[in-house]
Amino acid sequence: MIRSLLLSLSFAILLLTSAPPAQAATQATTEEVVLGLSQDRVAITANFDGSEILIFGAVKRETPIPEGDPLQVIVAVSGPNSPVTVRRKEKKLGIWVNTDSVLVDSAPSFYAIATSAPFNEVISATEDLRYRVSIARAIRSVGAAMHIRGAQDFADAVVRIREDEGLYSLRENTVAVDQQTLFRSAIEMPADLTEGHYTARILLTRAGQVVSSFETDIDVRKVGLERFLYAMSREQPFLYGLMSLAIAIAAGWGASAAFRLLRNN
Questions:
Q1: Alpha helices, DSSP H only, in the chain?
Q2: For position 203, what pLDDT does the model report?
Q3: In whole angstroms, what is the distance from residue 227 CA to residue 232 CA?
Q4: Total Cβ atoms within 10 A of residue 189
Q5: Which of 159, 208, 216 is nearest to 187 (CA)?
Q6: Would the CA dihedral through 130, 23, 183, 200 be positive or negative?
Q7: What's the pLDDT at 227?
Q8: Helix, strand, or coil here: 172?
Q9: What is the pTM of this model?
């Protein structure tokens, strides 16, 4: 009885003492992202016509590069999320009228994806569903009323409209990866950006599976006169309206005076 108890205790101790090396070996093979940004703040001024953010980084390893499928990189930059009401128009009696409407619960104001290879080769459908990487997965529409037909068409319309406006984009083969260790890419941001906190995500994948991910914030704010006018329009709308009216009257009077002066000369 005592011998059996001692053997059981010895076996348990052996398992406990052998577990940490196995765990350490698993952690040692992990690939991690070390990220850098050319800028983490974007200032919207009067002459702002867009910006370009250079995203670069490296892969930190404790062991040699794994054999097999090469490392792939996904860079995704998304703007603030907000609900969007989408309406369907139909022609009735020769007039276009709004018929159905669906509230898309959450859609990013800006979303750009850059990949080191074709998207379907970089990440599997299962991992895309888990990490919500693709443009279609980034938009959340919980549901619509039962009587509305083709509810998914409303979410697709948000994607189509914002792609045409340059706010949504998928740029395959635009992330350069050197020796499966260094990577870099550039994300172009249009002039009509929404103010707020933007998120830059980097995902490392092998054989379509995500092996590491990293997130960081990019602050997009109005500055100078634009910031002053924006704050006034939100916080003091009455004064903002009076100031706008005064500027319009002054501009009209100035144009009229200049026209009379030119006509007299």
A1: 2-28, 119-122, 125-131, 135-138, 152-164, 224-235, 237-264
A2: 94
A3: 9
A4: 21
A5: 216
A6: positive
A7: 54
A8: coil
A9: 0.70
